[in-house]
Design goal:
This protein is of the alpha/beta class. It folds into two domains: 218 residues, P-loop containing nucleotide triphosphate hydrolases (Rossmann fold, 3-Layer(aba) Sandwich); 72 residues, Alpha-Beta Plaits (2-Layer Sandwich), CATH 3.30.70. It is built from eleven helices and 14 strands. The strands form three sheets. A six-stranded mixed sheet has the order 6-7-8-3-9-10, with helices on both faces. Strands 2-1-4-5 form a four-stranded antiparallel sheet, covered by helices on one side. The two termini are 37 Å apart. Bound molecules: adenosine-5'-triphosphate and magnesium ion. The site of adenosine-5'-triphosphate has 11 residues, from β2 and α1.
Length: 315
């Protein structure tokens, strides 16, 4: 449905997107992740036909964005980082305007607006002036204009940025409900968001793809190691040195002392029975083990791990 091949974008001599290739299958949601300045918005603007690539191709529903920009635009709904809202219009006026801009035939405009508003739950604010809406509702208006022409493909640039937790949840559910019918690329900095709503993840950094996988696959790629949190009643320094001498403990990630308790986060190798060894050695020392639990590695851990290992490679 979306095929991006060797896409490259230079701004003058600056290489913002460097030879990236990926695709998104019909009905799937792809999470596009990366730190600030990674090249996410640049890529999205090329895919939506707003900007030509320097090299490479982007094909949407079989249409090349450079050769057939109008065919592509007709099939794409785009929600930019800042939705292009005319804040003095009412929601209804603005969506009417957006519908005409997208060349929806006059007699179909009403139906298209009703459907979009129903999908993003905007019906109770139709007559409000946009500038009087809360940020979350403005985002919804941005989404409504993106889906009003019922595009096959949606490109959403950080759709939940700046929303409160309840609105974030609602907008995520909304996006999830749009998949299937629509193929979606969504950029975000919020890692749990990718876990929750995306089928695939592409991580980019400095314009290059550094990982391409499912959210689960990415988390599993870290599963050779596990992290343990242990809380022990004993002297911190001694507990730390005993723990780090235990077979299978790779490193101590955190160590804190409080009221005679020592709390450690350890990175351990799966191959060893580290939990058993630790509880034995602590009990031999006469230290009570107050807590021991496995800390699941989150997508956030994976992201930070990947960012730092690819920086190291560059050095
Ligand atoms: N019009 C432009 N002219 C020159 N450089 C630009 C232009 N637009 C973006 N860049 C540069 O290209 C790089 C990629 O920018 P881009 O906006 O694509 O990043 P991003 O991944 O969307 O970042 P963010 O998470 O901050 O939105 C950045 O270094 C940025 O400064
Ligand atoms: Mg951006």
């Amino acid at each position: 449905m979306i095929e991006i091949r060797n896409l490259t974008k230079r701004y003058g001599s600056f290489l913002a997107v460097d030879d990236i290739t990926f695709e998104v299958e019909k009905g799937k949601i792809l999470g596009f992740l990366g730190p600030n300045g990674a090249g996410k918005t640049t890529t999205m603007r090329i895919v939506t036909g707003f900007m030509p690539p320097t090299k490479g191709t982007a094909v949407v529903s079989g249409f090349d964005v450079v050769d057939n920009p109008l065919d592509v635009k007709r099939r794409i709904g785009y929600m930019p980082e800042t939705p292009p809202l005319y804040v003095d219009m009412t929601v209804e006026e603005y969506l009417n305007f957006a519908a005409r801009l997208k060349q929806i035939p006059a007699k179909e405009v009403k139906g298209a607006m009703e459907l979009a508003c129903e999908k993003v739950d905007l019906n109770n604010v139709l007559s409000k002036v946009i500038k009087a809406l809360s940020k979350g509702y403005k985002q919804r208006v941005g989404l409504a204009q993106a889906i009003i022409h019922d595009p096959e493909v949606l490109i959403l640039d950080e759709p939940t940025i700046g929303l409160d937790p309840i609105q974030i949840r609602e907008v995520r559910e909304l996006i999830r409900s749009l998949a299937g019918e629509h193929t979606i690329i969504l950029s975000t900095h919020i890692l749990p968001e990718v876990d929750m709503i995306c089928d695939e993840v592409v991580i980019i950094q400095n314009g290059k793809i550094i990982a391409k996988d499912t959210p689960d696959g990415l988390s599993k790629s870290m599963k050779g190691a596990e992290r343990l949190t242990v809380v022990v009643e004993g002297p911190t320094e001694e507990v730390s040195s005993v723990a780090s001498a235990t077979e299978g403990v790779n490193s101590i990630l955190e160590s804190t002392a409080e009221n005679g308790h020592c709390s450690l986060v350890l990175e351990c190798d799966f191959k060893f029975h580290v939990r058993k060894s630790l509880s034995n050695v602590f009990s031999k020392k006469g230290w009570s083990l107050l807590e021991m639990k496995v800390k699941e590695s989150t997508l956030e851990d994976v992201f930070i791990h990947m960012m730092s290992s690819s920086e190291e490679e560059e050095v």
